[in-house]
Write a structure and sequence with these properties.
The protein has about 350 residues and is α/β, with parallel strands linked by helices. The chain has 17 helices and 13 strands. The strands form 3 sheets. A 7-stranded parallel β-sheet has the order 3-13-12-7-4-5-6, sandwiched between helices. A 4-stranded antiparallel β-sheet has the order 8-9-10-11. The chain has a two-stranded antiparallel sheet with strand order 1-2. Helix 2 crosses helix 5, helix 13 runs antiparallel to helix 14 and helix 16 crosses helix 17.
Length: about 350
């Protein structure tokens, strides 16, 4: 099969580019539900004229249907996407990058979606879709699932009702509140996950970063002890990977802390730990939420992050990631990751 594909690519190199372009268009329509031509053109970074030409071909093949308020994918179109997924993944080089990262960091699995989620919203939606599929695959009845905040984790929400069968799952906020955007905080996301997956949720309405005095007081509270027991029994953790400076700013860290993080050359952050390029923890803050020890005890970890600018932080995390980690990222981050790895070597 691989020899046949290789021969086809050599004889018709333009076929690969054209196939990927039309596949991407069809996939974008599928994820959008109903979408207009102008909005579609902006999402795939193409001119309206070029998009119109390709859409005419997709419609003639019965893959999309044009409605008064836009266009939507047909069942035949859905079937084509399923059939071509592995082929497009192979041709685009994503499969090779997945295997490379799995081997280099000894991860349970790596899943890379097309595009860069920092510039293409469709890529972030694809990350969310793949994470929802993994959650359905790995979860079992009555599992406790801890979730952090962030836009990549929030992108999973809309896909849960499609991919998750009711299993009485318990979604727990893995940390307190960070930043001002409530919709991206762990509490809100845990509750939203529970609604979409027909499960229940437990929230943690406390700031993520507490003073030493406040931390010692709050850790004795019954509600906090109860949350800690839930963390001890967590089966799956779904978490993002933060840029060190960005996370410190979101926590309203002091100038002294910001300076210390910079001096220690921290590039990534997870669960209150700041890591350098080699994955060594160089700074830690007091956080009320799941701890690194509890994280490593979980059966499955879904690390969800994308975008080329996140590559350094992702690399930092992967250098100490537990072997039960499933990384779900995008092409932009993966390409930058491989470049950083080559530079290190």
């Amino acid at each position: 099969m691989n020899q046949l594909l290789g021969a086809q690519q050599k004889l018709l190199p333009e076929m690969t580019v054209l196939l990927q372009k039309r596949y991407r268009l069809l996939m974008t329509i599928q994820l959008s539900g109903i979408i207009g031509r102008r909005a579609l053109s902006e999402m795939v970074h193409a001119t309206e004229r070029e998009t119109r030409r390709e859409l005419d071909i997709l419609r003639a093949q019965g893959l999309i249907e044009v409605l008064a308020n836009g266009m939507e994918i047909t069942q035949e179109g859905n079937n084509v996407l399923v059939t071509l997924k592995e082929l497009v993944h192979e041709w685009s080089g994503l499969n090779a990058m997945e295997l490379q990262l799995e081997k280099a960091f000894k991860l349970a699995r790596v899943i890379i979606v097309p595009g860069d989620s920092e510039v293409e919203s469709i890529s972030k939606s694809l990350i969310g879709q793949e994470a929802a599929k993994q959650l359905e695959l790995l979860s079992k009845k009555d599992d406790i699932i801890a979730v952090t905040g962030g836009s990549s984790i929030a992108a999973i929400t809309n896909h849960l009702s499609v991919h998750i069968k009711p299993k009485s799952l318990v979604f727990v906020a893995a940390r307190g509140g960070i930043g001002e955007n409530v919709e991206l905080q762990a509490n809100h996301i845990a509750s939203a996950f529970a609604v979409q997956a027909s499960g229940t949720s437990r929230t943690l309405y406390l700031p993520d970063h507490l003073s030493e005095k406040a931390y010692k007081t709050m850790i004795k509270e019954p509600v906090i002890k109860e949350m800690m027991d839930l963390y001890d029994n967590t089966n799956i953790v779904i978490h993002g990977i933060g840029d060190a400076k960005e996370m410190a700013l979101r926590r309203n860290s002091s100038e002294q802390e910001l300076e210390k993080i910079a001096q220690m050359q921290a590039v990534g952050e997870a669960f209150g730990y700041y890591f350098n390029e080699q994955g060594k923890a160089v700074h830690r803050i007091r956080t009320v939420g799941i701890q690194l020890k509890q994280l490593k005890q979980a059966q499955h970890l879904l690390a969800v992050a994308g975008g080329a600018s996140k590559a350094q932080a992702i690399l930092s995390y992967l250098n100490h990631a537990p072997q039960q980690t499933v990384l779900i990222s995008d092409e932009g981050a993966a390409k930058k990751l491989t470049q950083l790895m080559q530079k290190e070597n």
